[in-house]
Amino acid sequence: MIHAVVMAGGRGTRFWPLSRERRPKQVLPVVGGKTMIQETVERLSGVVPPERTYVVTGASHADEIRAQLPDIPAQNVIVEPAGRNTAPCVALASAIIKRLDPGGVMAVFPSDHVITNQDALYKAVDAVMAGIDGDRLALGVIGIKPHYPETGYGYIKTRARLGGPAMKAEEFLEKPDLATAERYVKSGNYYWNAGMFFWRADVILDEIGKSQPQTATAVIKLAEAFGTARFESLMAQTYPSLASISIDYAVMERAGAEGRIIAAVADPGWSDVGSWRSLYDLVPPDSEGNRARGKLIAVNSTGAFVHNDKRLVAVVGLDDVIVIETDDAILVCHKDHAQDVRQITEKLKERGLTGYL
Amino acid sequence: MIHAVVMAGGRGTRFWPLSRERRPKQVLPVVGGKTMIQETVERLSGVVPPERTYVVTGASHADEIRAQLPDIPAQNVIVEPAGRNTAPCVALASAIIKRLDPGGVMAVFPSDHVITNQDALYKAVDAVMAGIDGDRLALGVIGIKPHYPETGYGYIKTRARLGGPAMKAEEFLEKPDLATAERYVKSGNYYWNAGMFFWRADVILDEIGKSQPQTATAVIKLAEAFGTARFESLMAQTYPSLASISIDYAVMERAGAEGRIIAAVADPGWSDVGSWRSLYDLVPPDSEGNRARGKLIAVNSTGAFVHNDKRLVAVVGLDDVIVIETDDAILVCHKDHAQDVRQITEKLKERGLTGYL
């Protein structure tokens, strides 16, 4: 059976003022009327029923996530007492799924990415699942067709075509510099790493055990306690001491070299929504070239991106401006400076304005 | 005795979203904690007591103004059933003052201008009042030393010095084009017309009668009814039919040619606060070159002007931006486009968003 694991540990400081320490991007309606994690789980619901869907998140967001996802059993929202990057998170989920369904397959999704073409994603998922059916040791990923040389994403280098849209992946590559990214995009066999993974639970747990044996041992014990009163206290005792390491680094880089990774490539309108700028690119402009969620009046202005639920926004004599309004704060940002939004949280700390964090 | 007349009929569409049809600039705290009309009346209170201070305004703002100025007798807030420009307003006030104090002098002030150096203004008022004491037929004005070639103001051309800071004024000039304004400023004997007037009530009523005899006749009857139950209904019957004309055009242009105008010149930090840009120029910048009323975080940004009472504003990667927040709307404007804010109200009407007017 297929089980879905949604990783929901992100912080989203680049989405201030909408996202805050206690309300990260995944629990907010950044695009459309539902929150990003609701959109993610709804997208999965065609493939995996809620009782086989798991969410891994931090303690400060668990209650909110349980409230937002009422169809998912409360115990399936697994609380990390401390964030330890993706390898321990995947290991724990794989150990739990293996215990409940020894031959089970798991599909891992970030909770806060956007997909505008769901059907294109489904086709890629079908292809990668078929690949795992044909080779139980395979580790599956989705490679996203790159539209421009983004330096903020990791890349997957592909090799031989497997028949159908799946390919062998050869290398997992870190975020490149611009010249390298340009070379990747030009070559045609590099794809963006969307952070989605597909594998048998027993296989990935074995793989993690090869490089992180202590983690594997610990999560097997935790999985035995899953669903009992002991689970929470055992998590508190054990989990924070696990090595903080990404699944890319712990498993995927080596597995790529061993020829074990299959990548289904797709163009599903994906974005990691890493900044207001990337959201900007996702929203189609109106006839004046502006993009607004709520009411916008533009005078001698084009290229505006406005995220406003409550208040009318008027933009006068400014091009390419991003305006985000919340109950207690307003961001006004040039779209080419969207990465600098992170600096706001630093300045708020310096000034002691912690209520806005 | 001196009587003050505050003209409070303005609309202030260039101060959207702070000013609205029902809340024009003069009843709002645009600068500092008090509203502009409160600041104006407080500034006058050293010279004229509240019982001799009159405010002329429209019906939709009278209650608000009475509430904001509790020391001024309610009947001294005179309601125009319809705005008829400044000549009928001045005529009515002069007729009322003449009836109550036949030898009285009146000082006319706009309700929504800013003066940052009150003492400089007082000196000029003293000079102009001394001029009227010496020549009962004189019409007094304040000429503001121009700091740059503003094309949005009228100018007063001065001639011979009278001894002290008062001068004979020769011409009242309409808003010039830029080349003309530059010539005015360069010449050194042109001053901004601040819209402040000083004269004996009987003298100005006679002057208005010369060019607007029907207005003079009507306001004398209205003045007889002032303070009685008949006043409001008589105003409703009579006032809307008076010729709509400015006091500059009805009296001052001719009086200038006749050598009857004396101007006290001053540099009192005056602004008509005609747009957010002019307010911008009045607020001193912080160490990063930004000006904020409330909390501002600036990242890679300078020259911002932020009017925020409630919400924190963060500006990222933008220079010279004006951000104004209210409960229901946000304006984001480049400072060189502040005049275009007027266009917002037109667009709101086109789009049927009348709640924001």
Give a nutshell description of this structure.
Two copies of one chain form a homodimer. Chain A has helices at 36-44, 59-68, 86-100, 118-134, 178-187, 201-211, 213-225, 230-238, 247-257, 276-280, 342-350, and strands at residues 2-8, 53-58, 77-80, 105-110, 114-115, 139-144, 155-161, 166-173, 190-200, 261-266, 270-271, 291-292, 296-299, 305-307, 312-316, 321-325, 329-334.
Number of strands of chain A: 17
Q: Determine Rg of chain A (CA atoms, Å).
A: 21 Å
SSE succession of chain A: EHEHEHEEHEEEHEHHHHEEHEEEEEEH
**Largest inter-chain interface?**
A-B, 40 and 40 residues
Sheet with the most strands, sense and barrel status of chain A: 5 strands, mixed, barrel
Q: Largest sheet of chain A, order of strands side by side?
A: 6-9-7-8-10
Structural class of chain A: alpha/beta
| Uncertain segments of chain A | none
Measured by DSSP, the beta-strand proportion of chain A falls in 25-35%
Features:
17 strands; 25% strand; alpha/beta; 4-stranded mixed sheet; 11 helices; globular; 33% helix; 5-stranded mixed β-barrel; homodimer; 357 residues
Q: What report would you give on this structure?
A:
- The structure is a homodimer of 357-residue chains.
- The first copy, chain A, has eleven helices and 17 strands.
- Chain A is of the alpha/beta class and 357 residues long.
- In chain A, the strands form four sheets. A five-stranded mixed β-barrel of chain A has the order 6-9-7-8-10, surrounded by four helices.
- In chain A, strand 1, helix 1 (36-44) and strand 2 form a beta-alpha-beta unit.
- The radius of gyration of chain A is 21 Å and the shape is globular.
- At the A-B interface, strand 15, strand 16, strand 17 and helix 11 of A face strand 15, strand 16, strand 17 and helix 11 of B.
